[in-house]
Amino acid sequence: MKTLHCKEFGPVENLVWEEVESPEPGEHEVVVSIKAAALNFPDFLIVQGLYQFKPELPFAPGNEGSGIIKKVGKSVTRFKEGDRVYFMAPWGAFAEEACMHEFGVMPIPDDISFELAASYQMAYGTSYHALVQRGEISNKDEILVLGASGGVGLAALDIAKAKGARVVAAVSTKEKAEICKEYGADELIIYGEGPKTKDESKAFSNELKSKSLKGGYDIIYDPIGDCYTEPAFRAIGWKGKYLVVGFAAGEIPKLPINLTLLKGASLVGVFWGTFTGLESEANQKNIAEINQLLSEGKIKPLISKEVPMENAVEAIKMIGNRGVIGKVVLVNK
Q1: Which has the closest alpha carbon to 156: 195, 109, 122?
Q2: DSSP 3-state assignment of 32?
Q3: Residue 325 to residue 181: CA distance in whole angstroms
Q4: What is the pLDDT of residue 116?
Q5: Element (H, E) at 312
Q6: At residue 249, does pLDDT exceed 90?
Q7: Is the pLDDT of residue 61 over 90?
Q8: pTM
Q9: What is the Cα 257 distance to its own chain's centre?
Q10: Which of 129, 171, 173, 285 has the maximum number of C-beta atoms within 10 A of its C-beta?
C-alpha cells in the first residue's frame, strides 16, 4: 500500500508518496482501507515540527478519515470485515490503509458518504467544544467569528446559528464572505490582509464594534491570531469570552492584559485534542449532538474540494497559504 511519508520535519515539499508494507492488525485492532481523509491546518504544522506534539519519524500526517474495514484482530468484537467506518487518529490518515484500535473507529450511517464522514469530525468537534463547553453559548449571545470561512471557522458559524445566536463573520475576501452569507451570517466584515499599523488596528476594532448590536460581543471565536487578536479583543463586550482556538494567520499574538480587566472579560483556551482524552464522555456526548444536528439538517459541513490522495502535498501547501474554504478532502479511488 502507499502512504504520504514524513521522514524528517521540514518543508511540506519534503513529503513523499511511496510504497510501504501493509499493516497487520493487533489483537484489538482493525485495518481500514481508507476512502477519504480530511485536511486540517494542524497537518501543515505537524510535518514541519511546529505542532504541540511531534510524532516519531517516519509517519503519515492526517488524523481523520473514513473507509472500509479490511482486516480485524482476533479479539475485535465491534466490527467485521467490510464495515463502513470513520476514524480519528493522532496521524496516519493520508495513506491507502491505516491500523488502529477498534475503539478508534465508528460506524458510518448508510446515508452518509465517505467524503462527508471524513470531513466534519475535527472541525465541528473543535467548534462545538469551544462554543458549548468553553463559551457556554446561548441563543441570546452575539458572536464574532474570525477566519469564518475556514474549516473550524465555518463550523463555528454553522453551530452558532443552529444554537440561535447572532453571528458576525469576519473573513479576508469577498468570495469567502459570500460563503458565510450562505451559512446564515447576520453581518459580514472583509478585512483583506489585516491591520498593519496602529491606526489600521484601531479602525478594524471600530468596524468590528459597529457590527455588534450590543456594542461588544459575548463570544469571540479566534482560530487565526496574529495581528487580528488585539483589535478583536477590544471589540469584546462586558464579561465576554475570547476563545483562543489557533494561530492560522502566523504569529502567536501578545495582548495587553489590562484589557481583560477593563471588560471583565475572559481569555479562554480551546484545545479539543486534550479535551477528547481527559473528558471522553463529554466528547462522546458532543459527537452525538453534532450527528443529531447533521441528521436534522441544522448543520451542513462544506466540502469545497476533493483532491486525489497522491496530490496531498499541494493540498497541504494550499491550507498553509490560507487558500481553503470549508474542508478539502483527500480521496483514494
Answers
A1: 122
A2: strand
A3: 13
A4: 93
A5: helix 312-320
A6: no
A7: yes
A8: 0.86
A9: 27
A10: 171
Give the C-alpha distances (Å, rounded to integers) separating 97 from 61, 68, 87, 110: 13, 10, 12, 21
Predicted confidence (pLDDT) at residue 195 exceeds the cutoff of 80: yes
Contact between residue 293 and residue 299 where contact means Cβ atoms under 8 Å apart: yes
Question: pLDDT over 70 for what percent of the chain?
Answer: 100
Q: Please give the angle made by the CA atoms of 333, 116 and 184, to the nearest 5 degrees.
A: 140
Residue/partner pairs of 259-266 with CB below 8 Å, 24 or more apart: 259/230, 259/233, 259/234, 263/216, 263/236, 263/237, 263/238, 263/239, 264/238, 264/239, 265/233, 265/236, 265/237, 265/238, 265/239, 265/240, 265/241, 266/239, 266/240, 266/241, 266/242
Q: What is the pLDDT of residues 127-166, one digit of tens each?
A: 999 999 999 999 999 999 999 998 999 999 999 999 999 9
3 state DSSP class of 185: coil
Residue with cell 479562554: 268
Cell of 140: 441570546
Grid cell, residue 259, equals: 484589557
Nearby residues of 235 by Cβ (< 8 Å), 6 or more positions away: 144, 205, 208, 209, 212, 216, 217, 220
Provide, rounded to the nearest whole percent, the portion of the chain with pLDDT above 90. 84
Domains belonging to the chain, first-starting first, are 2-120+301-331 (3.90.180.10), 123-273 (3.40.50.720)
CA–CA dist 111, 159 (Å, integer) = 21
| C-alpha distance across the termini of the chain, in Å | 13
Report residue 213 as a C-alpha cell: 448590536
Can you read off the three cell numbers belonging to residue 166? Answer: 447572532
User: Rounded distance, CA 93 to CA 4, Å?
Assistant: 9
- Counting every residue written for the chain, the total comes to 333
